[in-house]
Each structure stands twice: as structure tokens, then as C-alpha cells.
Sequence to fold (72 residues):
Amino acid sequence: MTTPSGETPSPPITEGERRGLLDAVSVIPDPRNPHGVRYPLAALLTVAVCAVLAGASSFAAIADWLYDLDEA
Fold:
């Protein structure tokens, strides 16, 4: 299968690759005040990285990308 530009699409990201990204961002210290923190920093950074790789270029676009994901 090829894309309209004639390139072969990338294979889907595997669970091991997802885990690698999460592990990489997990070592970043969280500078936020613990009061009021709702989500782990590693999860937020992982979502942001994936959204930007998918083409998101603003905070609003990252949020839109997240809301468009399937439940799984």
C-alpha cells in the first residue's frame, strides 16, 4: 500500500516503542507544585510528543488530537 505521494506508509507503532517513549519522558523531573496536579507529567509529555509527531502545532491542536483518539 502506498500513500498519494507514492511513499510507503510507516508501520504502526508497537507497544514496545510506546513503552520506550514513556520510559524516556519518565526520567524528566516534574517542576510542578503537587497541589492541583491531575495527570502525571510523563503521560502529558508522551501525548504532546505523539501529537506533534502527528502534525499538531499548538496546545489546542494537541488537545484536539487527544480527543480524536479511540478509547483504547
Observations:
- The chain is about 45% helix and 0% strand.
- Residues 29 and 48 are 16 Å apart (CA to CA).
- Residues 41-53 form the longest helix (13 residues).
- The helical segments are 15-26, 41-53, 59-67.
